[in-house]
Amino acid sequence: MSTVPTEVSPSFEVERIREDFPVLKQTIHGKPLVYLDSAATAQKPYAVIEAIRKFHEVDCANIHRGVHELSQRSTEAYEETRGKMKRFLNARTKSELIFVRGTTEGINLVSSAWGRKNVKEGDEIVISAMEHHSNIVPWQILCEEKAAKLRVIPMNDRGELLLEEYEKLLNPRTRMVAVAHISNALGTVNPVRQIIEMAHRAGALALIDGAQAAPHTKVDVQALDADFYTLSGHKLYGPTGIGILYGKSKLLNAMPPYQGGGDMIRTVTFEKTTYNDLPYKFEAGTPNIAGGIGLGAALDYVNHIGLNRIAAYEHELLVYATEALERVPGLRLIGTAREKAAVLSFVIEGIHPHDIGTVLDRQGIAVRTGHHCAQPVMDRFHVPATTRASLALYNTFGEIDALVAGIHKVKEVFS
Amino acid sequence: MVDDLYQEVILDHSKRPRNCHAMDDANRKAEGYNPLCGDKLKLYLKMNGDVVEDASFVGSGCAISTASASLMTESLKGKSREEANAMLEKFHELLTTDTPVSKDLGKLVVFCGVRDYPARVKCATLAWHTLKSALENSSEPATTE
Asked: Which of A55, A352, B11, B78 is buried most deeply by CB count within 10 Å?
């Protein structure tokens, strides 16, 4: 066992934080739950669960309509999250923040609404070799429809994007560069500020998939100069089915609507409809009100602990886990970028990830196994699948020891 | 702890799969794919009239799917198409229902532990889905979905 670093952020009281997450207080197959799958979805603190319960129990009504008290309370609580998100991402105005179901919908909104209007035959869209399927397929659909071309930034064996190759891909036909801030399969933190700047120099826009970044690193969309930035609430300790798309006002205003329906209109006649202002133009229909309110509580929770402290603690966990896993004979880490978030993807010689996942599960350890919705990444590293342990603010050094012990047990079974 | 799933026979067949090779003179071939985990399998059959004379496979997969393909190809040899189809049904029943284990399945009963691991049923059935499409001579890859 490694020695737990003694300089561990002394003020980071992980045991107290764990008390906030009811799901962690259980045993799985008779063993304490070791939840190492937060990159898939993070667990929810009481504050989030309570905010959703309170909405349904006390305030429940539809929003943006109705003058009655409950509707006003609901509207206020829901819109408050938009304000919190504005501060969280440092957007210029609240109207630049559009509620979506999650990152996937955020990307689809841009590829559909912006893409339909702005991409023409022969144009090019640039993505990277480490994208999640949700940042590949929407662009593929667009390119097919418009006879445009999809170009891919390659990466090295550590899982780092090759910026000199990216530079060569950029040209006057490039319309959009869409890349992940942090890779879900490899943990790589991409130099998005530089990537965006290079896109802009070529006259292209940039969309950043922030699904994995938002829970682990401070995001400032103005400092990044991102044109679009999108994230999912459920990876940020909030509920599923709610996320945010940030877009620069100028771009959002020039885009046609994504979906038609209630709330996104100003006036409707059978001859002509005029659309609502931002952000409502892109929010057709009754939204996930409870989800929006839950997300607000999640932002408060994260802010209360502080993203910088969370990031520092997770980094210590990552360093500890990396060293511990590297000592396991036959284990190979996939994704060893110099700038990395707390994701450990690995393969073990001769043992399939599914078997690893099942044996770990029987020891109460939850990891993700498979291609992580990033099949091109698996192809790039010539593996069919990996096992992925992803860490969050409630994980402990002891849990990493449990993972390593679990892996030794796996090796015993399949020796 | 996981011995109910990874029984000795399964571990043995996963480490040293039988009939794990391509077959040049096969007259039926089919491909199987489990989109959930990316496991791929190619199945070869040599049919003599209605009888499976020989069966083999190649592919990459977990211990359960490799052992399943290995044991399946072993049990298929000498079986008629009708017998093979009956086995397929019984095997599926073994994994997905609580009915008493059928003795006709022979060695294949080692997979009864998979019942308690719903997430792994598709690993065990991939080879059998592929068999179905080989017997039907389908050109579409079989999937577990």
From this structure: A352
